[in-house]
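sorry for the late reply, my laptop died twice this morning and i had to redo everyting from scratch. anyway the thing you sent over, i finally got around to it. pasting the sequence first so we're on the same page, its 413 residues, then the predicted structure underneath. double check i copied it right bc i was rushing
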Amino acid sequence: MFYYLFKYLNELNFPGAGVFEYISFRASMAIIASLIISIFFGKKIIKFLQKKQIGEEVRNLGLEGQMQKKGTPTMGGLIILISIVIPTLLFAKLDNIYVILMLVTTLWLGGIGFIDDYIKVFKSNKKGLSGKLKIVSQIILGLIVGVTLYFSDDVVIRTKVADPTKQEVVEVINNGADKMSDYYVDIKSTKTTIPFFKNNEFDYAKIIWFLGDKAVKYSWIVFIIITIFIVVAVSNGANLTDGLDGLATGTSAIIGATLGVFAYVSGNYIAADYLQIMYIPNTGELVIFMGAFVGATIGFLWYNSYPAQVFMGDTGSLCIGGIIAVFAIIIKKELLIPVLCGVFFAESLSVTIQVLYFKYTRKKTGVGKRIFLMSPLHHHFQMKGLPENKIVMRFIIISLLLAVLTVVTLKLR
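ok and here's the structure:
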């Protein structure tokens, strides 16, 4: 909203109004606004949750310090939602298709998580929303995102062409004193970025290579299926990671900051050309959204760090996972998720391995065995006697290392 106001003021030559044209300025303002909202208004939300006795029901799993968490306010994900949505509405261009998709993702999964938490707390139903309904809602969101990204005319990649006489050129950029020109054309594509390879673009059409000439025609189906899978997987991965104070919040802030860097360079043709990465017009605006996301998660960490004064609940965990997934898909970096979201991936993998191995051994021997002392993975280390805050800090350090490795892939090919 402020963008449009100051754009109008800039046209009237109002002093300083032009600063709102800069993505870096608006992203900084979004970070500041989200931090203020999450820290100062978060305290009021926590007091409200305490007043309504919206506390966490804790099962006794024999973990150290677990029962002390009983009664801690949950549904704190509302703080994250508000701290993301309000700054985005204030500082982003609201006619940008990517910003709209991110707001839809935030409200959609935040709403599903809220319903789940509401059933658990107010209806005294520990199971909450059924797992099938949560999966279906995630699939629907993935379908909306996939269809929009493929069929919307506003979603394109801009690529350099050697012979502008044979294609419709949409932009010509002069490269300095030599007066040489680069010619670009906007195209629809199911290409994405594949890390650690010199020619780091991969077209999903290659997955259905056996269809021959029809592979490109039907590649959108593959793209949508992969989009749905990623949204479901990462959203649930974040949900599984949310088991220790500050764990999901801290790792998500690091992941978000890294994705913000990728969004900036992908939406800036100079940076994209220098780094030889895919240039996606208008994705730079996503930096404002991600600024709000990072500010919201760090602000929430103010109250969620050990010992937590509030838990995010599914309202927050489903939402942050979905945001990370959709954001990565938009900027064509979804194949980096196993690296960047390595903590989420390890947590999900530990649960999958535990369940499959238990069922396999029970079928073979009649007695189910476990590989981990307890899953998800963070509980395994708790069972080994490591303090909760040390586990969280080590996972955050690992997340930082993975984030650096992910950024390095811009040049490591």
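The longest strand covers residues 181-187.
thats about all i looked at so far, will dig more tmrw
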